[in-house]
Amino acid sequence: MAQPQEGDLVGGRYRLLRASGARWRARDEDSGEQVSLERTRVSSAQDAADRVAAFDRRRTEHARRRAAAQRSSANLVLADELVADQDVLWSVTRLVEGRTLEEDVAAYGPVPETTATPIAEDLLRALAVAHREGIAHGGVSPQVVRLTGSGEAVLTGFDTPLGDPAYRAPEHDEEAPTAAGDVHALGTTLQHALTGRQPGQADDAPAGELGRLIARMRGADPARRPSAAEALRLLQAPAAEPPATIAEPTETTPYRVLPVVGVLVAIGLLLVSIIGISQVDTSDDSTSDSDEASTTTSSYDSTSSYDWDESDSYEYDSTETTTSTTDSTEEAFEDVEEGSCLPVYQDGEGEWNTSTPPDAVPCNDKTAGVFKVISTSLDSSECTSGSSDYVPWSYTGDSGYTTTLCLDRVWVPRYCVLAETTPDGGVQIGTTTAVDCDETELPGHYNTVLVVSSVKNDPNASCASSSSDTTRYFSLPADEGASLVCLTFPA
Fold it and tell me: What is the distance between the alpha carbons of residues 222 and 232, in angstroms, rounded to a whole number?
């Protein structure tokens, strides 16, 4: 069949908007929402039709499990629909953009362990949730792992033949994929990420904590491999903070506890308030008029007792109470600590990706946007550095007080920022931005995207990897001029 083109309508419903390899951003003409479509060629038109029919038969049966899995993990992307077009199978999912792990390794080489570890955590978390709901993948490989602009790894390719067969477990059965087979395939996928080698080229596990876990995940005996949840716990075990527990596969339904606790606490506070009001000393009838007009306080005597009389009553006087509100955003800004790191970035139009400071992350967190808090007490005009890479983030609360966070970007290789090419061949780099590396609809005045190729500790170093490297690089100083950030156009 002919290659798909922008504007084509797939399955009478999905309008193709923009391609990135075999992946397309599309518009659902029924809902108006944008979705992701991925195409793969199968053996025949009948094969494509059979796969769609099998998916439709399972749709109702698996609806609850699929919905529960996707609610539990943002790193999990399940197909919402399959569409057959002759011998091509289209998989429709929620909109997910970013390069695949396969594309990343091909363009930039092996992934450092510090970057691969959070990728492994995201993928193990996704598999653990899927397996808990009784859903096996059957085709985990670098082709179905997507690296988003926000630094997350997501697992796609469920219900489709997208995965590379070379990554499958030795005991793989296409008709009956297993959780143990998925764990083996993910181990092989992570080994490829760390080494850049294809399966079979060299099967020695890489060194390090992640390498040792990969060796266990790729064990020959399926019964002795860790489950995805066990592997996640093993990977997180060296961390200082205890890992979140992901339950093994069960049919139990999770319940939210925090709202219940909140209600109980509120009830307890109400009872304390009632008892406290009842114990205000009102027995002194000789109190002067001037005393009655003043603010009354009472002290609690632990030796006294109080007998409840049902005839007692308390008449509410609205003049005795005042209503106060708190500005939660102001409190969040005030709670930020100097030296902490925040996962934030700007969208290219001067707005931060969040209005409230999020929870801090490790400063070596391998995500697209991480800023270190240099100061919480400077004015915005004082937030400057020798390398001009500090940026202020200010908020004026209901109290009238302005809190300014002075931020310094932590540059992470392999992630992309917005830029503007200039007529003289140079570029203006959006040093506070983050964006998907294959994004083409760019905000504001930006007209291109650059990827961070490396960060040099020597500010006088060359960005080129060797004398024969002809790649065009752009650079900027960082860390008060002590470092050099090298950028280039994405591959």
Answer: 17
Residue 146 lies in a domain: yes
Euclidean distance between CA atoms 455 and 466, whole angstroms: 15
**What is the residue whose two structure tokens read 């590396």?**
437
Query: Strand pairing of 153-155 and 341-342?
Result: unpaired
Q: Could you tell me how far CA 170 lies from the centroid of its own chain?
A: 32
Q: Residue 132: helix, strand or coil by DSSP?
A: helix
**Which alpha helices (H) appear in 205-361, and where do they start and end?**
208-217, 228-236, 258-278, 289-292, 328-335
Q: What is the largest CA-CA distance in the chain?
A: 99
Number of independent structural domains in the chain: 4
The secondary structure of residue 256, as a DSSP letter, is -
- Give the N- to C-terminal CA distance of the chain in Å, as an integer: 28
**Nearest CA-CA partner of 141 in 95, 177, 91, 192:** 192
| Residue whose structure tokens are 């080698």 | 197
Domain assignment of residue 358, given as a range:
328-409
Phi and psi torsions of 352, nearest 5°: -75, 155
CA 466 to CA 462: how far, in whole Å? 9
Residue-level pLDDT at 310: 42
Please check whether residues 431 and 467 belong to one and the same domain: yes
| Gap between the Cα atoms of 70 and 66, Å rounded | 6
Q: Which amino acid does the sequence have at 475?
A: S
Burial of 436 (0-12, 13-18, 19+ CB in 10 A): buried
Residues 106 and 225 grouped into a single domain? yes
Q: Which residues pair with 34 in a beta bridge?
A: 27
Does residue 482 share a domain with residue 404? Answer: no
Is pLDDT of 437 > 50?
yes
The phi and psi torsions of 52 (rounded to 5 degrees) equal -65, -40
Which of 236, 251, 274 terminates a domain? The answer is 236
Q: Measured between alpha carbons, how far is 4 from 83 in angstroms, rounded to an integer? A: 14
Residues paired with residue 466 on neighbouring β-strands, in sequence order: none
Q: Mark whether 104 and 228 lie in a shared domain.
A: yes
Together in a domain, 24 and 110: no
Handedness of CA 146, 148, 154, 158 (dihedral sign): negative
Task: Show which of 176, 208, 236 is a domain's final residue.
Answer: 236
What's the confidence (pLDDT) of residue 123?
97
Which uninterrupted H or E stretch holds 69?
helix 45-72
- Tell me the per-residue pLDDT of 180-230, one tens digit each, with 9 for 90 and over: 999 999 999 999 999 999 998 766 778 889 999 999 999 999 999 999 999
Taking a C-beta distance cutoff of 8 angstroms, is the pair 432, 446 a contact?
no
Q: What are phi and psi of 121, to 5 degrees?
A: -60, -45
- Rounded to whole angstroms, how far apart are CA atoms 123 and 75? 7
| One domain, residues 232 and 103 | yes
